[in-house]
Amino acid sequence: MAVAIRLRQEGSKGHLFYRVVAADQRFKRDGRFLEILGTYDPHMKGANTNIDLDKVNSWIAKGAQPSETVRSLIKRAGKAAAK
């Protein structure tokens, strides 16, 4: 089973926000997932991500591959946590 860390759309039309989830690559984008790892709200200013870096790192250690967008969000969250 290949696990991907990716975004899952939530909310209503025009007011979307995203959950960062660990999901099997065969599952649909908004379908079944294994675990919620955080959230991302592009409409908020400032700190618009809330990602549990411990959970993300444990999934990556197990072989999960983050998408490009999630990879950049993880970097941003890591920099914010280091402050």
From TrEMBL:
Cross-referenced InterPro entries: Ribosomal_bS16, Ribosomal_bS16_dom_sf
One GO CC annotation: small ribosomal subunit
Gene3D superfamilies: 3.30.1320.10
Biological process (GO), any one: translation
Family: Belongs to the bacterial ribosomal protein bS16 family.
Tagged with keyword Cell inner membrane: no
A GO MF term: structural constituent of ribosome
HAMAP family per UniProt: Ribosomal_bS16
UniProt protein name: Small ribosomal subunit protein bS16
Keyword field: Ribonucleoprotein, Ribosomal protein
